[in-house]
From TrEMBL:
Pfam families: DUF2818. The chain crosses the membrane at residues 6-24, 44-65, 77-98, 110-131, 143-167. InterPro entries: UCP019883. It comes from Paenalcaligenes hermetiae. This is DUF2818 family protein. The keyword Membrane applies. The keyword NADP does not apply. Keywords: Membrane, Transmembrane, Transmembrane helix.
Length: 179
């Protein structure tokens, strides 16, 4: 895979993944607090599930990075197929909380959506570092790089934010106003 293809793959994946938390009502993460509409569990069980799930997410991110950065790629198609496999594994892992909460709808708060966007930023960042290391040397980055890329990721999430919070609220206000 050339550098241009890797950049465009990351941009498209970033655009899609930044907007997913705003379009999907089901949770993408196990959080240690109870959300509105979620089943009742003890505090200890919530924290245990949160810690285990976060550990699994970190392990999958580390494995994605190791696999993409340390594998000798025979062809660009091999790199692309392996990166698609990593994205599919991450998508399946993020779908586990939604599968466990199928029965009742959950009303996610803005903070929960922001946490989901941040986790997706981390997974896309790991994929980008893997691409960079498979295509050449990995350049050391300071905090400024991560602050700028996180800000750009939030800008890519803006269409989902507008549709979720601004347009839906306007539709509700227009239908409830007296004619």
């Amino acid at each position: 895979m050339s550098q241009n293809v890797a950049i465009w793959v990351l941009i498209v994946l970033s655009l899609v993944s930044a907007n997913i938390p705003f379009f999907v009502e089901r949770p993408l993460l196990f959080l240690p607090w109870q959300q509105k509409g979620e089943q009742n569990r003890s505090v200890l069980a919530r924290w245990l599930v949160f810690i285990v799930y976060t550990g699994v997410l970190l392990a999958v991110g580390w494995l994605m990075h190791r696999t993409l950065s340390q594998t000798l790629f025979v062809s660009p198609m091999h790199l692309l197929l392996l990166s698609v496999a990593c994205v599919l594994v991450a998508a399946l892992l993020l779908a586990v909380p939604a599968w466990t909460q199928r029965k009742q709808p959950i009303s996610k708060s803005f903070f929960a959506r922001l946490l989901e966007v941040s986790v997706l930023y981390g997974l896309i960042g790991v994929l980008g570092i893997g691409f960079e290391s498979s295509l050449g040397n990995v350049f050391p980055q300071g905090w400024e790089f991560y602050a700028i890329t996180y800000s750009l990721f939030l800008v890519l999430a803006y269409p989902g934010f507008v549709i979720r919070y601004l347009l839906k609220r306007r539709r509700v206000l227009l239908t409830s106003s007296p004619a």
